[in-house]
Amino acid sequence: MDYEIMMNGNVRIGQRAPEFEAVTTMGNISLNDYKGKWVVLFSHPGDFTPVCTTEMISFARANTYFENINTCLIGLSVDSNASHLAWVYDIYCRTGIRIPFPIIADRNGEIARKYGMISNDVSNTETVRNVYVIDDKGIIRTILIYPLNIGRFIPEIVRIVQALQMSDCTNGATPANWIPNQPVILPPPNTFDGLVNRNNEIENNRNGISWYLSFKEPEDKCISNLGN
């Protein structure tokens, strides 16, 4: 499987995230260093480019929000570590913003290809704007892919992590447009008796529209886990 991933970049939701060791702007790291933490691993096409610069600044500004939900950011491109350092220093000099997370220098593209960050139809060398949400058990939970010319909406990435964590904590699901502190969807019943009971609950509590779609308020412990 590892060989297949390395050659095809065929990573999928629900699969264990491929391990890596890398040189970064904050020293050498491995994915194994982040056991027990959620990770947002994201790639960018190149240093000193306009869209990527706005994204780095936005990720840096949102870093505290990620930290509050036990999540670490890791950036990546195929640029050198020297280039990364010069770029983040230039950002700091011009804006006063420090980039508080590591950026991987994936010079040979090994990690990028392992994760499928290079789209040969777009570029044979540049990484597109991929995002991988990896949970605290090392499992890939979400994959997002943006084109080269469209910047990511960072609050949505925060919301995705929060939704995944809420779903795990409540054993439920989150509805469309869910944001923290809103109700979650109850798993539908699997028996006729359960169906009847669920409809009775809905009639009494006004917490749904039918046995297959009903809601509950998340427990306080689940809300507190989201940094609220």
Written description of the protein model:
With 228 residues, the chain is an alpha+beta fold. It folds into 2 domains: 2-152, 3-Layer(aba) Sandwich (Glutaredoxin); 171-224, Antioxidant, Horf6, Chain A, domain 2 (2-Layer Sandwich). The protein is 36% helix and 20% strand. It has 7 helices and 10 strands. A 5-stranded mixed β-sheet has the order 5-4-3-6-7, covered by helices on one side. Strands 8-10-9 form a 3-stranded antiparallel β-sheet. Strands 1-2 form a two-stranded antiparallel sheet. The two termini are 40 Å apart.
List keywords for this structure.
2 domains, 3-stranded antiparallel sheet, 5-stranded mixed sheet, alpha+beta, 7 helices, Glutaredoxin, 228 residues, single chain, Antioxidant, Horf6, Chain A, domain 2, elongated, disordered N terminus
- Report the uncertain regions: 1-8
CATH fold-type name of the largest domain? Glutaredoxin
**Architecture of the largest domain, CATH level 2?**
3-Layer(aba) Sandwich
CATH class of the largest domain: Alpha Beta
pLDDT averaged over residues:
91
- Main beta sheet, described? 5 strands, mixed
Helix and strand content put the structural class at alpha+beta
Q: How far do the termini sit from each other?
A: 40 Å
**Spatial order of the strands forming the largest sheet:** 5-4-3-6-7
Gyration radius, in Å: 20 Å
* Total of helices: 7
Number of strands: 10
Q: Which band does the percent of strand residues land in?
A: 15-25%
Globular, elongated, flat, extended or rod-shaped: what is the shape? elongated
Order of helices and strands: HEEEHEHEHEEHEHEEH
